């Protein structure tokens, strides 16, 4: 499991006087999903752990993903980022081909989306007040989006997730988590539907569409063209960030969060959690006091997470 120490090498650039966007350091967090990655055009590639998927197809998809993330990291560093945390979040992580990742002292990798920071288990370790911006490569549209490649939100049970009445997908959920520290979402890469979702919710965000989908298959740019387009987008996003044009997503607190689930069983199980209200057979609601608790009420995923269950 990845360990980060805020006052260790990640803290060094933040410096005593440095804010997140001080000239001394521009630290960015890349939370990398794979469904929206270039060259991933089939369900078998994206969800290669499913029954019947061929291992070689999965391997090739992970290689495409790793190469694309390398290009995005390079682009961010070239555009002036001083430090990157690059996190593999697809299916909880484990998709980067580690020996093929770009090695650069300014980049630290998280191979899973939950890890340890300052001795505590948390989601996206290292995403904290020293960070200047959040980038979401390889992202996808929320459940039920027409004309989207593999649209979903978190898992197949979740039909609609709302924050203070606004329906959001993973893009909105992750932006909200980052909003806890005032960190703006600055760039999204994905299919056209994911980019449209990001622009609708955050009009200032730079979104790079690399493909166009139907539910199970899509077509799009070649990996090389996608890397060029994405690099352009990241450069523009960093310029806008520096010009003060990016805004964090900080929904008003306490935040009312609801989830409509596919099955009554899943809703009944989630309703057992402390503080969760069942609005009807399928719908749950909670009021939370921090943007960092956007999904913690449901999944336990957030800050100060309970210790991982012992593996036998
Ligand atoms: Zn996802």
Strand-helix topology:
Elements lengths: L2 E2 L4 H4 L14 E6 L10 H4 L8 H24 L4 E6 L18 E4 L3 E4 L2 E4 L9 E7 L18 E6 L2 E3 L1 H10 L5 E7 H10 L4 E8 L4 E3 L2 H20 L12 E7 L2 H7 L6 E2 L4 E6 L7 H4 L13
Parallel strand pairs: 1-5, 2-3, 2-7, 3-4, 7-10, 10-11
Antiparallel strand pairs: 5-6, 8-9, 8-13, 11-12, 13-15, 14-15
Helix pairs in contact: 3-6
This protein binds zinc ion.
The site of zinc ion has 4 residues, from loops.
Fold and architecture overview:
With 312 residues, the protein is an alpha/beta fold. The protein has a single domain (21-158, 167-249), classed as Dipeptide transport protein (Rossmann fold, 3-Layer(aba) Sandwich), CATH 3.40.50.10780. The protein contains 8 helices and 15 strands. It has helices at 9-12, 43-46, 55-78, 170-179, 192-201, 223-242, 264-270, 296-299; strands spanning 3-4, 27-32, 83-88, 107-110, 114-117, 120-123, 133-139, 158-163, 166-168, 185-191, 206-213, 218-220, 255-261, 277-278, 283-288. The protein has a 7-stranded mixed beta sheet, sandwiched between helices. A hairpin with a 4-residue loop joins strand 11 (206-213) and strand 12 (218-220). The structure holds zinc ion (ZN). Zinc ion binds next to loops.
């Amino acid at each position: 499991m990845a360990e980060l120490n805020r006052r260790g090498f990640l803290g060094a650039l933040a410096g005593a006087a440095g804010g997140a966007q001080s000239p001394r350091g521009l630290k960015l967090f890349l939370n990398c999903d794979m469904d929206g990655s270039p060259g991933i055009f089939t369900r078998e590639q994206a969800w290669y752990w499913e029954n019947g998927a061929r291992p070689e197809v999965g391997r090739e998809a992970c290689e495409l993903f790793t190469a694309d993330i390398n290009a995005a990291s390079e682009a961010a560093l070239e555009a002036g980022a001083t430090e990157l945390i690059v996190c593999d979040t697809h299916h909880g992580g484990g998709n980067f081909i580690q020996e093929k990742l770009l090695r650069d002292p300014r980049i630290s990798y998280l191979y899973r989306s939950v890890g340890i920071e300052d001795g505590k288990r948390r989601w996206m370790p290292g995403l904290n007040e020293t960070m200047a911006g959040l980038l979401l490569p390889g992202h996808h549209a929320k459940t039920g989006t027409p004309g989207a490649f593999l649209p979903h939100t978190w898992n197949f049970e979740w039909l609609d997730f709302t924050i203070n009445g606004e329906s959001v997908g993973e893009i909105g959920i992750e932006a909200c988590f980052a909003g806890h520290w005032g960190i703006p979402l600055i760039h999204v890469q994905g299919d056209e539907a994911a980019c449209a979702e990001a622009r609708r919710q955050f009009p200032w965000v730079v979104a790079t569409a690399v493909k166009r989908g139907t539910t199970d298959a899509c077509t799009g740019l070649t990996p090389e063209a996608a890397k060029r387009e994405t690099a352009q987008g990241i450069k523009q996003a960093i310029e806008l960030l520096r010009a003060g044009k990016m805004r964090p997503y900080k929904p008003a607190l306490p935040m009312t969060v609801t989830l409509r689930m596919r099955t009554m069983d899943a809703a009944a199980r989630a309703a057992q959690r402390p503080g969760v209200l069942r609005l009807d057979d399928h719908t749950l609601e909670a009021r939370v006091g921090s943007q960092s608790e956007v999904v913690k009420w449901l999944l336990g995923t957030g800050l100060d997470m309970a210790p991982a269950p012992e593996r036998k």
